[in-house]
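Form 12-C: Joint structure prediction
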Amino acid sequence: MKASRRSKAFRVGYTALILLFLYAPMAVMLFFSFNESRSTAQFTGFSLHWYAELFRNSAAQNALKNTLLLALSAAAVSVVVGTLSAVGIDRTRRKWLKSSILSVTNLPLMNPDIVTGISMMLLFVFAARLIGARTMLGFPTLLIAHVTFCLPYVILSVLPKLRQIDPHLAEAAMDLGCSQAQAFFRVELPSIASGVVSAFLMAFTLSLDDFVISYFVSGTGFQTLPIYIYSMTKKRVTPDMYALSTLIFIAVFLLLLLSNLVQARSEKKMRGARN
Amino acid sequence: MKKIFHQKNALRHKYAPVLNAPYLAWCVIFILIPLAMVAYYAFTDAGGHWSLSVFRELLGTRPARISLAKVFGNSMLYALAATVICLLLGYPLSYIMARSGIRAQRSLMMLLMVPMWMNFLICTYSWITILSNNGVINSFLGLLGLPALKLLNTPGAVVLGMVYNYLPYMILPIYTVIAKLSPSLREAAQDLGATGWSVLRKVTLPLSLPGVASGITMVFVPSVSTFYISQKLGGSKTQLIGDAIELQFLTFNRINTGAAMSLILMLIILLSMMVMKRFSDGEEGAFIA
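Section 2 - Result
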């Protein structure tokens, strides 16, 4: 009895220590975002000055807008292309073709981001030279790069769902007069919808968060939030960056809390329905 | 009947090439050709002629401008240290998590996801506030009357930055694998007389190895190729392979040298993945995110 209480204390204490480690920088950011002076080391007094500053900062707002635009487009394109290719891969009969497509799909997952970024930068620089443009780095190259690193995740999250569905369902639909496309949209797509939605969310967050690959393919015209933050941390960071991260932190926390609650409620309902 | 079935099956498979074509084209243009370009630049000189001069310069004995062996050695050393520390810190937490109640599991999962979603640049930067000479830790030591420590711009700070950024990537795959283990396995071991400790050592630990393997790759690969963490927390003295590559491309504009370094980095990672794969055979990617 005593031993189990001691082990419980150990478990709670250990978990708390790890969480303390993971949240220490966020606590520091929260604290110094309310600093009165420009310093991120010496706290001189409480003020909301840096939050006001942030709302006047048009570069940061522009970067945020760019990031959201890019993440939405990258997620949309990669989900459409990725779902279609997952269906294609699922229907490929030749074993060697299937396994080689899957190996190529795994390449960007295994390659370090810096190599992926650099290899794409080389391609875009070369292509710009071919068409005689000074540079082609900007929104289109960012979109291509983001779709490229999102595609494997989309395919790997849709493919297992496709394997689960009964192929006879689509055949039955076609027997009843559906065309191939109709059978796909009316029978198969609804049964893989959960995989498609989670693929979209995954692609969206991956794109939102990416720094390393974007850093090499973004050029100067189109700045995303991570790249803006990078350029800010090259100099001495002022507390408005901490204010920005504090707001991001609150948004992320609320979003995850909300999804957690929704999930808990739906599980409860399922359990209730079964009883 | 059989014939009809075959026809229908053939119809289903008929469109596979059409569906595959756009993706295959995408893969070739945006994955394979760029990687081939890295290889091309690595094996040519600045004039565009085939040559091994870049490798000779990088690996040769003549006083190279970049001491590549040291840079690679440091990167491997730091990344290995970070991986081992993440494993030692992360495994117990994954185990504790997997054996808690369902609500505790879900809350802990959420608490681990929040740092993963935060921008890693600014989180890494704020470690400067914690570690610097007049930072949080040293002010605290000062209050206790202890002498200040030099924490920032040390190898330790770089490893700490790596552990901080990638610890959740070690915890989650191991947790996923342990949580999926059937409780009857533990019960069976206990019925056969195993104590709590030997159940962990002889049942849970071996069965969780696939999770450990994917955790190790998910920490090692970004650690060995990072350039931001070492720039911010390591000062100018610690140069890792990621820093060297970034410098060659974006500052010196020496594409061939940078490409050769990237190629070597890729080979190192592929080799380590092959070694890891021997541990995780059968169970592919316990957790992918």
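Section 3 - Comments
The CA atoms of residues 139 and 222 of chain A lie 6 Å apart. Chain A has eleven helices and no strands.
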